[in-house]
Each structure stands twice: as C-alpha cells, then as structure tokens.
Known about the structure:
The chain is an alpha+beta fold.
Amino acid sequence: MKRPTLTLRNNAEPLVMEATSLYALAALLMLVQLPHVLNLPIWISVFGVAMITLRVYARRTPHDVKWRYLFSTPSITLLAVIGAALIRAHYGYFLGRDPCVAFLFILVSLKFAEYRRSADATLLLGLSCILLLTQYFYSQSLIAALVTLPAVLALGHALAVLRDPTHALAKKPQLRLIGKLLLQGLPIALMLFVMFPRLPGPLWSLPDDASGKTGLSDTMRPGDIGSLSQSNEVAFRVEFEGAPPPADARYWRGPVLTRFDGFTWSPEPRLVEAYPGSTVPSALEYTVMLQPHKQNWLFALDQAVSIPSKDGSITPIGSVSDFATLSTAGQLMSRDPVTRVLRYTQRSAITGHFQAPVKPSQVELNVPNNIPRTTTLAKKLRAQSSSANDYVNRVLNRFNQMDYRYTLEPGLLGNNPVDEFLFDSRQGFCEHYASAFTMMMRAAGLPARVVTGYLGGEMNEDYMIVRQSDAHAWSEVYINGVWQRFDPTAAVAPERVENGLRAALPDGEFNNGFANSNAFSWTKKAGLMWDAVNHDWQRMVVDYNNRSQENLFKKIGLPSFALWQLTAFILAISAVWCLWMLRSPLRKKPPLLPAERIWKKLETVLQSQGIEREPAETPQAYLERAYQTLGRGNEELQRIGQTLMSARFAPMTGKDAEAQAGQADAQLGQLRKTLQS
Length: 677
C-alpha cells in the first residue's frame, strides 16, 4: 500500500522536494555562509550548518514524524526568537553590524529549513545575495572578492536548476553557461564601475559596534606599546610624492597625552580652527591608507600643515574641513571613527619642532606625588645646567651612559613606576623611557608631554608599510616658545630609530613572525608581493572615487561630462551591448545532427559527379535521380540512402545514434572509392 505524502501544518506542499533544487540551494547557502565563519561566533556557524544539513537529510526520510515538528512554522519561529535572544546576550546589544549579520545568518538557515515551494526558493536566493554582500562590512580586500566567486557560481547554478529542476543538465553544475553569462555582463560592469558617478561615502551606514578597538589606545601604561609591537598587522600604508623621508624622520604622530596620574597617561583634547605654519614651503606630500581602528585619530608625519578632506583634496589649515580637525597639540583627528579603510592626502613639515599655537597649560607641568626620587634628581640636574637645552642633554646622557636596557620584558613595576624604572629596574620599552623623560622635564619646570604613534616603515616597491610593530612613544618639550621632539629611546637604543625594532632588541625577544624574518627570505618576499597586490586592489578598486575618475578621464583625453550626458552615454552603450548579445545566438546556425552532416557530405560527392540538387527537390527524389544518372555505385548509393533516411526520420539516441552515423560515414567512403575507380 502506498504511503501518503506527509504535509506539515500551515503548509499544503509536501516535505519531499525536488532533490536537485534542494541540493543546489544547500550548496549555495554553504558557500554564502563560509566567508562569515571568521567573523561570527562559532556557535552561530555551527547552528547554521546544522539546520542546512538536517533539512537535506530530512528529504531522505520525509515521512519521519520528527521532521514534522522540527520544521513546522511554530518551531522555526521559536528557534528564530531563541537565536535573537542568544545574539543579544552574546554581544550585549542588537543594533549593530555584528549582531545584525549574525541574526541574518540564522534567519537564512531557518528559511531553508522550511523550504517547500518555489516562493521560498525565490526568497532564499534574495537573502543569500544580501548575506553574501554583508561580508564586505568586515573586509573589502582581494581575498574577500575571491571568496565571493564560488558563491556567485553556485548562485548561477541554483538559478539554472530552479528554472527546470527535472532537466537532465540540472543534475550537474552549469559552470560553462554561468561563466559565459558572467563574461557577457563583465563589459557593462566595468563601464559602470569606471564611468558611473561616485558617491562620497558608503551606500550603507550601521551603528558603531561595541567590539574591541585595534592599534594604539588613547591611554598609555607601561607595557601597552610593548604588547602592540608583537603584532604583525598593518597599521597603514603610505604613498609619497617624491622620495620618502629618511628613517630618523619617520615619526608618525598620533595621540598626544598630557595628563599623568602617576600610572596612566591620557589626552586632553583642545581643538583649534587655525594653526600657524600653514605656509611651510618645504612640506612633504603623501597619501595615507589607514586601516580601520575604530578610533578618531589620524596619523601624519611630524608637523601637519594641512587637513585632509573627504574627496581626497587638501584643505589648508585655517579652513573648515568636513572630514578632520587639528588640535592645538598637533593631533590630526577624524570627525567620525575610522571603521573602514580610509584614504587621505596630507602635507607635513619635517622639522622636529614647531611653533605652539597656544601657550602650555598647567596640565603640561603637573607632577604626580608618587615620583619623589625622580623629582629630586630632576631638580639637582637642572641646578647644574646652564640652560634648558643643556638640561635635556644631561638627562639624555644619563640614559645613554648608565646601564639602561631596551627590552620588551622589563618586569612588573609597583606603586611608583617612574621611580622604580629610573633607579631600580633600569629596563623598559619606549613608553617607559618617554614617560620617565617627560616627568624629568616637568619636575624641572619645563612643560612636556608624551606623543604616541609609529616610528619607521618598510618600503615595498613604490609605497611604505607601517605595521603595529612600529608603534612608538616619544616626548615633546616646550623650550623658547617651541615644542621640540626628543626621543629618549634613541639615547638608549639608537638602532631602533635607524634600523627598526628588531635591530634594537636582544636576540630572542622579538617574536613578530613576518617582521622578524630575514629581509631576503622567500617567505618575506612572497608576503611583500601579496601585500603589493592588495595595495593595488585597495588603491584602484576600493578607493576609486570622484577624484580618481576625473584623473582617469584626463589621462585618456575625455572631457568632464554632465550627469545627463554620462547617464545617456551609459544607457546607450548598455543597450547596444545587450542587443548584440541577444542577437548573437540568432546569427549562429544550430548544430547539425549526425545524419544531416553525412547528408551534406553525400551532396558534395554527388555534385562532383555533376548531379546538382534542385531547390524544391526532396531527398528521395534527389536520390532516385542520382540512381538513374550514375552508371556505377548504385548499390552503395542505395545502402547509404536507406541508412540516412532511417537515421533522419527514425532517430536513435546515445550509442545507437553514434553507431548509425558511423555506419553511414563508412558507406559514404565506399561510395567515394567506387566513383573514383
């Protein structure tokens, strides 16, 4: 007795679906979810894969009653609510990039679990496209684009299968057809990318996530930068207009820290609209591609003499920029947190000192109570000095001539970290030396502050890579109305300034894999080559904007188009290309059947004997006239005629058709020999 087909509550369609459709959608969802494995919690990925796997397995046992309850509408709804609650508990918030993508990830899996009819398949295709695009919220690198390709091919295959799930060709991927369609659409995509007006910002805007920030912090404690220096991540890349500055001038200015409570340094933001020194004639121009760090600060060499704008142009200091501001401490700040790769052009004066826009405040003279020994030493050395510069040199000579050690493993400090470092341990990283030097200056009555940022950078072809391992801290002292840069680390380990962190540290301390590798090793060369490819991708594709478009038009000699002209041009070219693509199959002759191909050969043989076929003559009449005309070969002609008639009007398939065509071809060969003898 035939078992009845199981139907679920609130659904008229049976659980049994066409296998090819189900498998095609399952493959698509797996490939769409794959890029998110590294971005979402592991339990979400496991849940999504489990729901897809169970739905595929359920097709093999469609009458099992447990699937009725698991894939029913109430169960799916309950799972969605539980998933939303767990996501809220995991992240601590719900409106943001990460929780919203995670919830969409779960909803797509649950929608596949209740897939029963064609409307569900259509919705799944749309949701898959959206989920695939959300990976670009996390990365817009070349790897992200390459990971998308398998999912795009799977999407094309799913469309082909859903169009006709019972077709024999739907049982194997339609890669040739999909590739052909993608190639046909590629010229239009390239034209739209190059010529379409660029938007000043991204198409979407999400609330800022409360996830951890990367890179430098707005506070500094002993050990903070030392931990950061072990990271191989890229902080930013730089393209210079002309030759890059020498190694000892590559101080990339970031957060400026003025407040110190004896343990932690923190900033005191003070914004200003105008800034002296904007007419420096020898300013160096360069373009920074800053990696997202979810903070507001930007980085500039030494003294910034311009403010970047959104469109990539340079705004003179004193003008209002919609993109960034400059504090009185010389810190360049973005108006919004940097949550995506940011490209901006900047000018800087490489001087090592600059005029202060305002006089130092009392904050830059404050000395905490937990540095009594440091204060005593500072006053003693200041009394022995003839000038402020002489005093600074005495402090630097103390670091240089006494047994101070530059290390990533300084050990723990107690309740008086500056005193304990200067007089007891005498070993530390850049933040230890910058902090102690700044306190020595303040204790002697000289305004001083700590500047954090990066020191150095590695040239790779025509651009520079600055990594997190280049993080550094130095000091600035106010002398004779000018803020002057002093780097106490250079007095202890001058190799740090000239040759980088690796050269300054003792053997075995620097564990940064890539930066620690030999400059001529094949792994480092391969890494730099790959970084250059990613840099070009970012520069030419991701960062392609209105300014890039204008420069491209100028290079190829095109004028600036009005918006309506550009729109009309794009529509006209697209229409011509689409019409040509749609008509091109009509210009191609359909492939001949094996019997028709042999018949064409037979006509050629008979024409060589002077027997031309009349336009309205049937094949049978043509053969009968050939029998009467030919004096020889009639037997071969009759046999081949019978074979061709049978093959044409009673066609076989598969191996039988191939054998029949081969038989007719052999008979045609025998006819040629008879007629030529």
